[in-house]
């Protein structure tokens, strides 16, 4: 054997030795979480299951669906698929890309509501383990509030007067959000303060049955309430992207940040010294608050995976309380949906969690069924009109009319309304 | 008999086939087949849960006939025309000007040439990222550069306003790509023999006359080629818009061009599922526009251009 062949054969041998371990690859859109999975979640699992190796392989959030579709079609997707809620995953299951999880012991830890986002319409088959939900609300800069002598607002009037005061002080940007990426306007704006106005599930189910419309009642009022944010957005907000807003708030340059609970972890990482607190979506006209407790992440098995048994082992672990505790604390702001015992240490995350008992609960209006049509797509329409509303290129009525017209163009219960 | 002898003297030119084969094969596999397959795909459709079946021109009828598809399509075509116009009005004339200046063999022209060409070799992702940072209203250097000059009025969210997003992207693209027409023009200018300049100067011609009467006519074929390259490049453009504005090409599709429309239709975006058949139809429309433009150029311009022998 000459000198080049020896290292080569050693490499081959190493490869053979490694082959005895099963390797599971996880597809995900949470590229922010790479470190957490690599450093805490996966090692905890591998310790209990030494013969399974897990690789977390995320792609960029906005491209995830397209990337995943392409990989599934080409047969190169990983063994475990992180599931978007509702239609996207249902579509994958219908196309036989995901394995049915019925009979998986861990599924007993979830109630029907938690499983709804990842089950067939009749609720009989579940194809992803519910992993986490996210809650919408506001994160605020405690230092700024103390400095300006402000208290946490609970009504819209208090919120707007606090905004006016912050703006007048000139030191902080009152409401840190940009409209360039468009989705924040709908997700952190419209869907954040909206559920209170359209009475949560009553309004959302009204859209599904045809009893409620986007261009009247609570849904229109939500557009009107969103428009009142306009004077308080930062300079040049039309060109501020999501990471820009995150950075601006993390640097302490802003007072209030319309948030998804997932932002807690981001701010903790970006600037551990920033003192943050949280308050729930304010009430408007005396209505009881309703929060968006949005099922966000599930985990399913690629039907084409060769490692079905190992994948089921992993999912059973994901349904356990040890995973829930690990996950809720490693990623404050992602709240486990399992009915298992876990405690959250982060005080801001605890605050978000508290609203589950104080306010009504619903989730984003466009996610179930209403975005099932490729074009026009209800979710994308809401992004567009909410941004145009904040950019001042559309009135609330025009925003509601456009979304309603597009929805009515294909969704039978809304036809002619 | 004579016929046979002639055939014997001129055997079939196998060497041409042999030499062309690799290129033809590779080109067919990686270019022609995918184009044809994509066109074929645009003629198919599939009902929910049904099998794929032939649909004729139904996808194109939907694309051009229903408001839902036609409105974004024409918006994208219009934006594409604007994008192309910006390149034709800014990139190519300025590229030509720079090439003429460099052809005078100024001191340090090699340095200028390198500097002007550098953006061209950088990745579009880097270009997009850098310009996003420069123009960022929160901490971009734009503000710091403009304020000392008393130009606060120019400190606008250029990428976020419906009226300015597309021109801004067009100018970024011009900045990046200006090196290519510049080098092509320069290569053509360098080929012009010095005797022509000397003769012109003896006749009392100034710089402008030399450019009008000698340089421009002699590089006209290159101007044509650069225009065609710009046209094809612009109507295929996607990467810069996608890296700066995302697939939604905001605000409100103000910077949406055919490339981003194709991406959203074919691959889907966020909750919007992709539709490969309609996506292929959009690609078909792009191909048609590019082919039509090329044919127009070949018929009306190319035939009138004559290469001058020097």
Any chance you could write out the topology, listing elements then pairs?
The complex is a heterodimer of chains A (417) and B (310).
Chain A: H1 5-19, E1 22-28, H2 34-48, E2 52-58, H3 64-74, E3 80-83, H4 87-94, H5 112-116, E4 129-141, H6 142-147, H7 156-169, E5 173-175, H8 183-197, H9 201-209, H10 217-227, H11 242-250, E6 254-260, H12 263-270, E7 276-279, E8 290-301, H13 308-318, H14 321-330, H15 347-358, E9 360-362, H16 378-391, H17 396-408
Parallel strand pairs in A: 1-2, 1-3, 5-6, 8-9
Antiparallel strand pairs in A: 3-8, 4-6, 4-7, 4-8
Helix pairs in contact in A: 8-10, 8-16, 10-17, 11-12, 16-17
Chain B: H1 2-9, H2 14-41, E1 44-46, E2 52-54, H3 58-65, H4 67-103, H5 109-121, H6 124-135, H7 141-146, H8 165-177, H9 179-190, H10 194-202, H11 207-235, H12 239-245, H13 258-267, E3 268-269, E4 272-273, H14 276-300
Antiparallel strand pairs in B: 1-2, 3-4
Helix pairs in contact in B: 2-14, 3-4, 4-8, 4-9, 4-11, 5-9, 6-12, 9-11, 11-14, 13-14
Membrane topology (chain B): Multi-pass membrane protein
Subcellular location (chain B): Cell membrane
Protein name (chain B): ABC transporter permease
Largest sheet of chain A: 9 strands, mixed
The CATH topology label of the largest domain in chain A is D-Maltodextrin-Binding Protein, domain 2
Q: Into which percentage range does the β-strand content of chain B fall?
A: under 5%
Full CATH superfamily name of the largest domain in chain A = Periplasmic binding protein-like II
| Gross geometry of chain B | flat
What is the overall number of helices of chain A?
Answer: 17
Taking pLDDT < 50 over at least 5 consecutive residues as the criterion, the unreliable ranges of chain A are 10-18
Examine the secondary-structure arrangement and name the CATH architecture of the largest domain in chain A.
3-Layer(aba) Sandwich
Number of domains of chain A: 2
Distance between the termini of chain A: 81 Å
Q: How many beta strands in the DSSP annotation of chain A? A: 9
Instruction: Report strand order across the widest sheet of chain B.
Output: 1-2
Output the structural class of chain B. mainly alpha
Radius of gyration of chain A: 23 Å
């Amino acid at each position: 054997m000459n000198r080049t062949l020896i290292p080569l054969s050693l490499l081959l041998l190493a490869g053979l030795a490694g082959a005895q371990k099963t390797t599971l690859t996880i597809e995900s859109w949470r590229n922010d979480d790479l470190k957490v999975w690599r450093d805490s979640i996966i090692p905890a699992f591998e310790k209990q299951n030494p013969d399974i190796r897990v690789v977390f392989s995320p792609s960029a959030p906005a491209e995830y669906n397209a990337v995943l579709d392409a990989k599934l079609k080409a047969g190169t997707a990983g063994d475990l698929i992180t599931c978007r809620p509702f239609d996207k995953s249902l579509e994958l299951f219908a196309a036989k890309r995901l394995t049915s999880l019925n009979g998986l012991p861990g599924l007993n830890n979830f109630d029907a509501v938690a499983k709804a986002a990842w089950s067939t319409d009749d609720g009989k088959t579940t194809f992803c383990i519910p992993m986490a939900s996210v809650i919408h609300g506001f994160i605020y800069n405690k230092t700024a509030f103390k400095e300006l002598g402000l208290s946490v607002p609970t009504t819209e009037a208090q919120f707007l007067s606090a905004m006016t005061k912050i703006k007048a002080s000139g030191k902080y940007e009152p409401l840190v959000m940009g409209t360039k990426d468009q989705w924040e306007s709908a997700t952190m704006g419209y869907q954040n303060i909206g559920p209170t106005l359209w009475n949560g599930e009553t309004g959302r189910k009204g859209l599904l049955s045809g009893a409620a419309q986007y261009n009247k009642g609570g849904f229109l009022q939500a557009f009107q309430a969103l428009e009142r944010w306009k004077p308080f957005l930062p300079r040049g907000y039309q060109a501020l992207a999501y990471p820009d807003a995150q950075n601006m708030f993390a640097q302490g340059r802003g007072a209030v940040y319309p948030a998804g609970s997932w932002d807690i972890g981001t701010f903790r990482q970006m600037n551990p010294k920033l003192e943050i607190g949280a308050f729930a979506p304010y009430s408007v006209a005396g209505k009881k608050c309703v929060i968006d407790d949005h099922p966000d992440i599930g985990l399913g098995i690629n039907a084409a995976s060769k490692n079905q048994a190992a994948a089921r082992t992993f999912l059973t672990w994901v349904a356990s309380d040890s995973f829930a505790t690990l996950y809720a604390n490693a990623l404050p702001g992602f709240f486990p949906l399992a009915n298992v015992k876990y405690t959250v240490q982060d005080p801001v995350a605890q605050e978000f969690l508290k609203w589950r008992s104080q306010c009504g609960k619903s989730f984003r209006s466009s996610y179930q069924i209403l975005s099932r049509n490729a074009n026009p797509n209800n979710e994308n329409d809401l992004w567009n009109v909410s941004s145009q509303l904040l950019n001042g290129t559309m009135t609330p009525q025009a925003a509601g009319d456009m979304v309603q017209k597009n929805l009515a163009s294909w969704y039978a219960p809304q036809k002619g309304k | 008999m004579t016929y046979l002898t002639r055939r014997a003297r001129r055997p079939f030119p196998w060497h041409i086939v042999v030499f062309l084969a690799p290129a033809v094969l590779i080109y067919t596999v990686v270019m022609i087949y995918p184009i044809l397959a994509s066109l074929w795909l645009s003629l198919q459709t599939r009902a929910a849960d049904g099998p794929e079946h032939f649909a004729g021109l139904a996808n194109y009828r939907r694309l051009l006939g229903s408001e839902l598809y036609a409105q974004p399509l024409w918006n994208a075509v219009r934006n594409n025309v604007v994008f192309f116009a910006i390149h034709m009005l800014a990139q190519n004339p300025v590229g030509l000007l720079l090439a003429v200046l460099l052809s005078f063999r100024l001191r340090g022209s090699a340095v200028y040439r390198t500097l002007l060409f550098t953006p061209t070799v950088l990745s579009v992702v880097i270009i997009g990222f850098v310009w996003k940072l420069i123009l960022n209203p929160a901490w971009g250097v734009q503000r710091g550069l403009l304020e000392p000059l008393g130009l606060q009025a120019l400190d606008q969210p250029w990428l976020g306003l419906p009226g300015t997003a597309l021109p801004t992207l067009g100018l970024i693209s011009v900045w990046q790509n200006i090196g290519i027409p510049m080098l092509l023009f320069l290569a053509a200018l360098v080929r012009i023999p010095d005797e022509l300049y000397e003769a012109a100067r003896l006749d009392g011609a100034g710089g402008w006359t030399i450019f009008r009467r000698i340089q421009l006519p002699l590089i006209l074929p290159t101007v044509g080629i650069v225009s065609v390259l710009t046209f094809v490049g612009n109507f295929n453009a996607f990467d810069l818009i996608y890296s700066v504005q995302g697939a939604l090409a905001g605000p409100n599709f103000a910077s949406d061009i055919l490339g981003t429309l194709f991406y959203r239709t074919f691959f889907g975006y966020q909750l919007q599922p992709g539709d490969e058949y309609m996506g292929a139809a959009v690609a078909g429309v792009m191909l048609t526009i590019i082919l039509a433009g090329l044919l127009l150029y070949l018929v009306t311009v190319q035939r009138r251009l004559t290469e001058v022998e020097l």
